[in-house]
Write a structure and sequence with these properties.
24 helices; five-stranded parallel beta sheet; 3 domains; 7 strands; Rossmann fold; alpha/beta
């Protein structure tokens, strides 16, 4: 209901404002006069004292899309609507609408604007984008890509351009502000190509991502159904109003008050399934119960079975919401030590720049202290590739404290690097989830004492209907998916029966699970086989080139 309310309350207004700005491309002097009047009235310092001789439409819309109180945003928006003779109601709230950084609210450099054509180009692109939103065709699409690349490379534009596009046509364009980027990449597991100027995306990459998101909106597991809802979810995940830069202390008071009212979206096992897990809900429930009972869980399995991906999301389900302040991740490796994980001596610079050795808490001890201070909340430590490190050495006395029956203060122990009168215990509300790859036999065997303190769950290749549905939702044909499943399962059977390989070396489904929409499935499939599957086969069948050739041909015979 909230998303629908948002869409009805602000999108029409923004679209009307954008359309009403178009005639002012040839009346910019009048528009600039109004801008400076408003800037003076509301003391918008970023516009004052700059000797502005021109103005662009994105900067005008940005005047009420900056870090300030909702009251001030409504007031400026109201004055702009009156100036432009827009009769659509001004939004009562601006939840989820991306805003400009207060320190970077201009889309051009005032010092160069009078001698460059940057503002002219911004106006041309603004009008083009509005036309493209009304009529999506190949000619406008190509022109959009060309101008997008030109404009985004201009001084002070960059990623803000996507924000401006979202303002002027939120039904047609998505914002790629920092919050939205994080949500798209981390939560939706979609790639954002960054091959343009200064590591930003190009116009063609922007439209490709737009196409991928439109397909995602149509899937049954999609939480967002349009770009407006996507921006709202991103905003909520980032903590709502906490990201705003403020003009003054009065703004800060309102924002801090509003923050307390921002709802925290729950995260559960159903959400894990919606995001692309192929395990049945009953299996996920079993994993969760093992973790709740034992306090410590290891997800083991062959490469490509989604261990790391599931570990993080299972942690969120334990915490109850997606919050990285309550979920801490660390990867073990050959050089990981007790000092890295628990506590050790580290050189620390003092106020004079002189380095002295001090005891510094590692991530696990830091999380222990957080959990002790907030006994009503749950905290999770995620350890990737736990068997890559010398676990007995890394955990030290924590091996004893990890045991579920000793999660109490009366079992506290002194640390190897203890402070005066200090004893440590692992509280009941702290959980550990680790991953372990069964394919690499060169890794360290787990210490038996550690094994006893963990529950184990083995993830297997999952080429079921849920996986096929996911593939089709990302642009793969049912025919190709059936072929992949048949060949991979046949290969895995041979690998499992091979005494030199075994079940732990089979191929997982993740190799064939695209993270974004696939436009050219043949090209995508050949690339996966040649760059990922064939090298694995070559390592498995070192002395049997015929086997490598046979299986390579079996995978590619679908073509």
């Amino acid at each position: 209901m909230k998303q629908q309310h948002m869409q009805n309350s602000w999108t029409a207004f923004y679209q009307a404002i954008a359309q009403a700005l178009v005639p002012y491309e040839i009346q910019r002097t009048v528009l600039l006069q109004w801008v400076m009047h408003v800037a003076q009235h509301y003391q918008l310092s970023y516009l004052l004292g700059k000797n502005l001789q021109d103005i662009c439409p994105f900067t005008v819309m940005g005047m009420f899309n900056r870090g300030m109180t909702q009251e001030k945003r409504r007031a400026i928006a109201t004055e702009l609507a009156e100036f432009l003779k827009v009769n659509v109601a001004v939004p009562q709230n601006f939840d989820g609408i991306p805003i400009l950084n207060n320190q970077s609210s201009l889309f051009f450099n005032p010092a160069h604007a009078n001698v460059s054509n940057d503002i002219e180009q911004l106006w041309r692109f603004f009008v083009l984008a509005l036309n493209y939103a009304k009529q999506d065709n190949l000619v406008l699409s190509q022109e959009f890509c060309v101008q997008y690349d030109q404009v985004s490379a201009q001084y002070a534009v960059g990623w803000n351009l996507s924000m401006g596009l979202f303002w002027l046509a939120p039904d047609h364009f998505m914002s790629l502000d920092s919050q939205s980027q994080a949500y798209i990449e981390q939560d939706l597991r979609l790639d954002i190509e960054r091959k343009g100027s200064k590591g930003r995306c190009r116009g063609q990459d922007y439209l490709a991502l737009k196409c991928t998101l439109l397909h995602y909106f149509q899937t049954p597991y999609a939480l967002a159904r349009n770009f407006v809802e996507l921006a709202l979810y991103a905003w909520q995940q980032a903590g709502g109003l906490k990201s705003l830069a403020n003009d003054n202390d009065d703004d800060l008071t309102e924002i801090e008050t509003a923050l307390q009212e921002v709802p925290i979206e729950s995260y559960d096992l159903v959400r894990i399934q919606q995001e692309g897990c192929f395990l049945a809900l009953a299996e996920l429930e079993k994993l969760q119960q093992r973790l709740l009972h034992k306090k410590n869980l290891i997800l083991q399995g062959p490469s490509g079975t989604g261990k790391t991906w599931l570990a993080k999301r299972l942690a969120y389900s334990i915490v109850g919401h997606q919050d990285d302040a309550h979920v801490v991740s660390m990867q073990f490796h050959a050089n990981t030590s007790y000092e890295d994980f628990i506590r050790g001596w580290r050189p620390v610079a003092d106020s004079n720049g002189q380095h002295q050795l001090q005891l510094v808490d590692g991530p696990f001890l830091q999380l222990i202290k957080k959990a002790q201070q907030s006994p009503n909340d749950r905290f999770v430590m995620v350890i990737e590739e736990i068997n890559r490190g010398q676990t007995a050495h890394i955990f030290g006395e924590m091996l004893t404290l990890l045991e579920s029956s000793k999660r109490a203060e009366q079992h506290a122990l002194s640390l190897t690097y203890a402070k005066a009168n200090e004893k440590v215990y692992v509280p009941e509300n702290l959980y550990v989830i680790a991953t372990m790859n069964t394919a690499d036999r060169s890794l360290n065997p787990l210490d038996f004492a550690l094994k006893r303190r963990f529950a184990f769950a083995t993830l297997k290749p999952c080429f079921n209907q849920a996986w096929r549905d996911y593939g089709m939702q990302h642009g793969l044909s049912e025919n190709l998916l059936h072929h992949i499943a048949d060949v991979t399962q046949e290969l895995n059977q041979q690998i499992a029966e091979n005494p030199y390989l075994g079940q732990g070396m089979v191929l997982g489904h993740s190799y064939f699970s695209p993270h974004s929409w696939v436009d050219h499935e043949k090209q995508w499939y050949v690339e996966i086989v040649e760059s990922e599957i064939v090298p694995i086969l070559e390592s498995y069948f070192l002395d049997d080139a015929d086997q490598v050739e046979t299986w390579s041909m079996r995978f590619l015979e679908w073509l």
